[in-house]
Amino acid sequence: MRMLLFSINIERTSNIAIEAYDFTGKRIQTIYDSQIPKGRFKTSWNVSELPAGIYYVRITVGGSSVLNKKVIVL
């Protein structure tokens, strides 16, 4: 099983959303969407069923977003 791991330090209780998009910008999965307490947050995304390619992960914490490019290789 291939997993992509996320570890995020949260400064205060916040809503967090982690969403995955394909190379065309289509959202393919919501990895996580919930409120979490202050501290270290860890989660993972099972990428075993995804074809090789370029994917984007948007991480939104308390209204601020970051977009990261991920390359899945077989």
Describe the structure.
The protein has 74 residues and is mainly beta. The protein has one domain (3-72): Outer membrane usher protein (Immunoglobulin-like), CATH 2.60.40.3110. It contains no helices and six strands. The strands form two sheets. It has a four-stranded antiparallel beta sheet with strand order 3-2-5-6, with no helix packed on it. Strands 1-4 form a two-stranded antiparallel sheet. A hairpin with a 5-residue loop joins β2 (14-21) and β3. It is globular and about 35 Å long. The model has no long low-confidence stretch (mean pLDDT 92).
Fill in the keyword field for this structure.
single chain; 74 residues; mainly beta; 4-stranded antiparallel beta sheet
Outline:
The chain has 74 residues and is mostly beta strands. It is 0% helix and 70% strand.
Strand order of the largest sheet: 3-2-5-6
Tell me roughly what share of residues is in helical segments: under 10%
Largest sheet: 4 strands, antiparallel
Q: Calculate Rg over CA atoms.
A: 13 Å
CATH class category name: Mainly Beta
Rounded mean pLDDT is: 92
- The best one-word shape is globular
- Distance between the first and last residues' Cα: 11 Å
Instruction: Based on the coordinates given, report the CATH architecture.
Output: Sandwich
Counting DSSP H or I runs of 4 or more residues, the number of helices is 0
Counting structural domains, the number is: 1
Per CATH, the superfamily is Outer membrane usher protein
Secondary structural class: mainly beta
Order of helices and strands: EEEEEE
CATH-defined fold name: Immunoglobulin-like
Unreliable stretches (pLDDT < 50, length at least 5) are none
